[in-house]
Amino acid sequence: MPKILEERGFRFIVWPNDHEPAHVHVKKNAGELVLNVSGSEPVPIEIRGQMPNKTVNQILDIAEENLATLKQGWEKYHGCKG
Questions:
Q1: Rounded to an integer, what is the distance from CA 52 to the centroid of its chain?
Q2: pTM summary value
Q3: Burial 14-42 (b: 16+ CB within 10 A, else e)
Q4: Where is 57: in which H helix or E strand?
């Protein structure tokens, strides 16, 4: 699973051959947040494991600042799909 970005201990990754919409999996410790990155801002899809709201907000801040990078990471493995 390719890592697209790592910041503040959060790993933003994609799965090759994954389903649409364009999304990244963000992991830290025992938690995982799946973010839709196909639009003009990242949108949480699913939380797996334990992840406090403060952590979700930190991830959203990082994702907003790096949205173009996250989209490019998705497109590298899946083409220009949304």
A1: 17
A2: 0.91
A3: beeeeeeebbbbbbbeebbbebbbeeeeb
A4: helix 53-65
